[in-house]
Amino acid sequence: MTFWTIVPMEIVMSGAEITPAYEEIEYSGVRVVVEKLSSAECRIVRVISTEPNDYLRPEVQPGKMLTYHVGDVV
Amino acid sequence: MTDSDNPVVAPPGTEHPHPPVPDEVPKPIRRSKKSATNENIEEMGSTEVPSAKSNVHVMTIIGQIEGHMVLPPQNKTTKYEHIMPQLVAIEQNPEIEGLLLLLNTVGGDVEAGLAIAEMISTMSKPSVSVVLGGGHSIGVPIATSATYSFIVESASMTIHPIRLTGLVIGAQSSFDYLEKMQERVNKFVVTHSNVSEKIWKEMLYRTGELSRDIGTSVIGRDAVQYGLIDAVGGVSQALGKLREMIKAQKESERIKQ
């Protein structure tokens, strides 16, 4: 892994000690990796699919926030 | 008994006797039933809502190009594991005819950047890149990977050698390795732009121009003069060029048939 950037490494790497909690879930028919932010919220970080068009779907783009609703109808 | 027409209060005796039983695994749902516009404003700070399907797809290469390591969250990153399959989808989707790349990047992982650049350069559909703000370090090969590249007057590109940063052991072999890494980038840029290897290397190792490093910072028109970028221009020029190339490609396909 080699970084080639104009941003000093100490700025890029600050905060690296915090390890995010990742989880794989199924959302709207696609397997996604989410980062758990709290017990109620998570954010999509990655799509796992072999269907290329899944990567163009707006509802599963990385950065999308999801909320856990206990007992809610999806 | 007639139904109550009061929309707020349920008629007596019709409330749920038991609250719904919670599922064992909570299922995520969309945050609310707000319109896509509201959601966009709230989450992305953007008001752009496409009303009609475009035949051109826009890809933004911003912040750090993230590679084999997840960067700390204060970095804005372009994630190659998402960009690459997206490029495959763009290549094979018959409704998409061209790709517009918007670049404002400070660099990042060499291998991830090269991977994106190679994918764009090997696509059969025409692509146009626009360097806005900055296209530094690994942003340079990505900018040149498009079929045609633009730079706005005010944008800058920093060309500097790949350095030992982070967790690398400073032994002779690692210097050799870096040299090889640099050579891969050099080859890519030279073959995908009009810059000659001599000028590129001269820019790479120039002293006295950057305050923290050796190298060159080229701005707008200069990038075109060196042959790194094809033309100076912004959104309208880029889209115009893309449309022109899409038309030319369609015509050449028609002739073949």
Could you characterize the architecture of this molecule?
The complex is a heterodimer of chains A (74) and B (257). Helix content of chain A is 7%, strand content 39%. Chain A has 74 residues and is mostly beta strands. The mean pLDDT of chain A is 85. Chain A is built from 1 helix and 5 strands; from the N terminus they run βαββββ. Chain A has a domain at 25-74. A 4-stranded antiparallel sheet of chain A has the order 2-3-4-5, with no helix packed on it. Chain A has one helix at residues 9-13, and strands at 3-5, 22-27, 30-36, 41-48, 65-69. By secondary structure, chain B is an alpha/beta fold. In chain B, strand 5 (127-135), helix 4 (139-145) and strand 6 (148-151) form a beta-alpha-beta unit. Chain B is built from 8 helices and 9 strands. Chain B has a 6-stranded parallel sheet. A two-stranded antiparallel ribbon of chain B has the order 7-8. Chain B has a single domain (54-256), classed as 2-enoyl-CoA Hydratase, Chain A, domain 1 (Alpha-Beta Complex). Chain B is globular. Chain B has helices at 36-44, 80-92, 110-121, 139-145, 172-192, 197-204, 221-225, 235-256; strands at 27-29, 56-66, 77-79, 98-109, 127-135, 148-151, 156-159, 216-219, 231-232. Chains A and B meet through strand 1, helix 1, strand 4 and strand 5 of A and strand 1, helix 2, strand 4, helix 3 and helix 5 of B. Strand 1 (3-5) of chain A pairs antiparallel with strand 4 (98-109) of chain B.
